[in-house]
């Protein structure tokens, strides 16, 4: 077994001394703050009286007096009471009041000019803003008649181009052209979007 340590650890002793010193400084500061708080004037009547006295002694109007460090030496000192800055009134505001600003025109009360349209709902606004005609909601209803007209117009041309093909082959080729044709009502619905 090792020998028992006799004496005191020097590092821990210095640390304890440092902590005790810091605590003593903090306690002294706290005690001083408590004493200052006891001597501080909090009565609003006394504070107003002090304010009036300052205004009289400085000869300035209350709205322009703002106590700063340059006024502190001229104040009479009372050893029992610490001098603390008293804010009288801040400087005059440079902002314009709402009475000085011109009134803006109420856009809700403006009479619409001739040629303009008014929209109160979303649907009305969309109708006013849209410049093209309404989209066809059911192009498949016109598809049969449109295909018959397309077949009648283009079958003769396909027979001339491909004389050796059978009728079913010609119809297959015609159907392929029909899917890409601008005459197809299903293509007309998205043609405006694709042309942008």
Automatic annotation (TrEMBL):
Is the keyword Coiled coil assigned to this protein?
Answer: yes
Pfam families annotated for this entry?
Ccdc124 (PF06244)
Mark out the compositionally biased spans (Basic and acidic residues). Answer: 18-29
The record's keywords, sorted A to Z, are:
Coiled coil
Which GO molecular function terms does the record list? transcription coactivator activity
One Gene Ontology cellular component: nucleus
Region annotation Disordered: residue ranges? 1-29, 174-196
Location relative to the cell: Midbody
Q: Give the superkingdom in one word.
A: Eukaryota
Entry keyword Nucleotide-binding: no
Q: Which residue intervals define the domain Coiled-coil in the entry? A: 106-188
Name the record gives this protein: Coiled-coil domain containing 124
Which species is listed as the source?
Answer: Cyprinus carpio
List the top taxonomic levels of the source: Eukaryota, Metazoa, Chordata, Craniata, Vertebrata
